[in-house]
Amino acid sequence: MNGLSKDSATWLEVGEEAAGQRIDNFLLRVCKGVPKSHVYRILRSGEVRAEQGPDRSGVPPHIGDAVRVPPIRIAEKPLPGAVPARDFAVVFEDEALLVVDKPRVSPSMAAAA
């Protein structure tokens, strides 16, 4: 997440690429992997602040402005149905195709994952 802290607030400096951009779009770009609903929630609650005070999403930041971003934590969830990495026997391989011998996953095993 581009150097954002999970334990304390982070101050980010607005660069050329983000100058004039709405603050919500700036945060969505900086906070990759954070749900949009969470970004909008921290904006509405006033936790995101620019040098001028509580920020309004309609006021774009200028180059060099500092924007305070609160601590953001995202739960790392495994993908549903993800299988741990294993070595499978390669049956056939060429430039365009790879065939592996993989055991079938039974429905009861898939439901347990």
How far apart are the first and last residues' alpha carbons, in Å? Answer: 28 Å
CATH-level-2 architecture of the domain at 10-69: Roll
Share in helix: 10-25%
CATH class (first level) name of the domain at 10-69: Alpha Beta
Helix and strand element order? EHHEEEEEH
Structural class comes to alpha+beta
Count of DSSP-assigned helices: 3
Q: Show unreliable segments.
A: none
Largest sheet geometry: 4 strands, antiparallel
Taking strands numbered 1, 2, ... along the chain, how are they ordered across the largest sheet? 1-4-2-3
The radius of gyration over CA amounts to: 22 Å
Average pLDDT, all residues = 76
Q: Can you count the beta strands? A: 6
CATH homologous superfamily assignment of the domain at 10-69? RNA-binding S4 domain
Shape: elongated
Strand content: 15-25%
Stated plainly, the CATH topology of the domain at 10-69 is called Structural Genomics Hypothetical 15.5 Kd Protein In mrcA-pckA Intergenic Region, Chain A
